[in-house]
Batch of 2 targets.
Target 1
Amino acid sequence: MKKLIYISGIVSANLMLLGSIFKVMHWPGANVLLTLAIFIFSFLFLPSALVSDYKSQEEQRYKWLHIVTFLVFFIVFIGALFKIMHWPGAGMFLVIGIPLPFILFLPVYLYQTRKDKKNTSLNFMGIMFGLIFLAVFSVLLSLNVSKSILDTISINIFNNKQLCLSLNDENSSISNDISQKSDELFNYIENIKNEILVASDNKNMNNDSCKIIYNSDDTEISYLILYRKNGIGELSALKTKIADYKNKVLACDKIDDMQRKLVNSLFDVDDNTRNYTETWEQRQFPSNHLIITLDALTRIQTNVRLVENVLND
């Protein structure tokens, strides 16, 4: 029994450490490592350690405390696994698991050990710190964007892509300066998206399978390309190109007042125009999540095709 406890404990701890590092760095295999770690901890280490501790007592006491300890830790860690893997029911696990250590484990622990003279205040403080850490850990998991939201944004990206293609087909027979500038800006944004997708091990957005975006909650790749590439980032250059495109469209002789308002609204990159409290980058890219970045870039492309279509009516 002790051999199983030692082996499962060491293996689960090391797998948890490696899985956490892989998850933070967005390396492949992180989910497999974390799943194995939590599985070994919950189904091997935890029950065997509690059973061994209970049987090793001279006077076997605290039976219900051991049972409750297993249930609480099992539910919390399985809930963490469901949240990490974006499996259905993760939210319910966290709703139950976050308060469970305080409303079930703590009262049972205090009741079972109330007559134990060896139970010092130091032990109680250790228990409290452990429970608080467990609760904070669970809450931090729940702060991540849920998979349902990420999947919805993926569908929006696909739909916006189809709209862009549709608008482009309508203007395929038109060849003028505005159309040329629109194509240049559109293709520039497309290159940024493709660079982000390639860096995050995804397929080209031109493929219909773009509705499935892998590592959609990745924030590191988008941040590096948009803000840190070549010391400046693609977003700075994109903002300049959008401003140039806007000025080119507004300088067109055929544009009327309604069209001018539309262009100013869709391509408002001047942060001082309306006394914004946020920059253009913060308004357009509220998060560095991969899927949200792609959605923002695709939305700008849709606006480009929309303006092109309106001006060529």
Target 2
Amino acid sequence: MTPNTLWKQLHVQVLAAIVAGFLLGHFFPEFATLMKPFGDGFIRLIKMVVPPLIFCTVVVGIAGMTDLKQVGRTGGYALLFFELVTTLALIAGMVVADGLQLGSGMHIDPTSIDTHSVAGYAASKAQSFSAFLLSMIPNSAIEAFAKGDILQVLLFSILFGFALNRCGEKCAAMFTLVETTEHVLFSIIRIIMKLAPLGAFGAIAFTIGKHGLATMLPLGKLLLMFYLTCFGFVVIVLALVARLHGFGLWPLLRYLHEEFLVVLGTSSSDAVLPNVMTKMEALGIEKHAVALVLPTGFSFNMIGTSIYLSMAAVFIAQATDTPMNLWQQLALLGVLMLTSKGARGVTGSGFIVLAATLSAVDIVPVSGLALVFGIDHFMSLGRALTNLAGNCVAAVVVAKWAGDLDQEQLKSQLKRPAA
């Protein structure tokens, strides 16, 4: 491969943009903060297309099915897998924080903490289970698309797909329209993805320029252990899950290397959702399974966010000398099992969920949020990368459970060398 051909590869461009953004942020921090609109603009362009794209993908997948019971079976398996894996992730974060006593010895008085930086987050409240379910139902279909609420869009899309399936030949023209619109939207995504290097450059330059590497040093132990826990969960738990289901984790991650590099630059797994859906379908997963599992997983299967939530909560308790017995930790775990399902793959969402959780349990002082606020942005990158890995593994596993996977095509695609 010649240097000119190599440079045309998206992952090479993104990697170069990340390095350039890092250098600009380190040596010219004030100028680097002006690059923020590039990162924000790229994310907004992707989010602009995601709701209608999910609608079209889900509708085409369900409306084209001959056995609608298969759709329900796939959805049920997905929710079961999500709950099992995220619960394991919550426990892993709690065990690591407890075992290493990450916050012990800081002896911080909760009343002495400056909470101005987190005042808005501290007001967050956790939803009850019924309120959470009701929040999935939009006041109108148009509102769901306007807000970009993926779960609301998903609910409307499933209902629309079932209704279109029942109409049969009478609605064939509508099916063709939705299918054609889907192709147009994927074409738009391909155009937007050409801007991924610019988005990655802007996001990295702003982060390093504004926060600097020095901001990580005081809480470096927590940050380091968070990344090691995420890495360990991926290479041990997810790799074991993959092996037990007949495929290798590393070939899957290599297959999606461009998407991981985009997430590395933008700290948002939402930025690659459309591309990941296309690639997972190319692996041999049925269209309806991809359409159900991935969008749902980006709200319900947030493995990295789950690790962060339990680890940060225990860290704050230890740093403020707040004792927690076993029952209190189990109560915290129970609340986290609910609140973690409301996190979305957007930068900062994990911190909002953490604030809501601490407000709900009333065990750990909410003012302690200020202790982790300074490094939250650096943690969001680990959350996004781990979330993406977990959802890609989930898509393959759930498809195999439900019989929606062409295993020969999966093996063939994963054996191909990376582009």
